[in-house]
Amino acid sequence: MTHRRSSIENRPFKSLGKILAEKHIHLPEVCLPEPPARRLTPCEERHLFRQAMVDVTPLAGRRTITPIRSRQPSDGQMQEDPDAEAVRQLRYSAG
User: Fold this and answer.
1) How many CA atoms lie within 13 A of 19 on its CB side?
2) Taking the CA of residue 74 as centre, how many other CA atoms within 13 Å lie in the half-sphere pointing to its CB?
3) pLDDT band at 4, cuts 50/70/90?
4) Confidence category of residue 88, pLDDT binned at 50, 70, 90
5) Do 40 and 48 form a contact (C-beta atoms < 8 A)?
6) pTM for the whole thing?
């Protein structure tokens, strides 16, 4: 399968280096930690997560988010095409 490139490209950081150089802004070097040589155990992952979250402040309000469930059509109902209303409006405005 060939990858087709869009004729419109969004590359917001393409000239970032040039802009930073013009404004004499120098970013610090970033050293990323080496990935572990072996896969972490679930216990080690939990410990690592808790360690990373030590200074995180929870947001005020509810502690859990209740997911919104989409209403599924019953067997007797036909599900309408999501674009049907838009097509109706276009036909009405064009005709």
Assistant:
1) 5
2) 1
3) low
4) confident
5) yes
6) 0.30
The owner of tokens 């150089």 is 21
Question: Radius of gyration of the chain from Cα atoms?
Answer: 26
d(CA 32, CA 12): 24
Amino acid at 72: Q
**Residue 79: which of 88, 91, 68, 71 has the closest Cα?**
71
Q: How far is CA 54 from CA 26, 45, 48, 58, in A?
A: 30, 14, 10, 11
Residue 46 in 3-state DSSP? Answer: helix
> Which two three-digit tokens encode residue 4?
């087709």
pLDDT in tens, 12-50: 889 999 999 999 998 888 888 888 788 889 999 999 999
Q: What gap in Å lies between CA 94 and CA 91, rounded to an integer?
A: 5
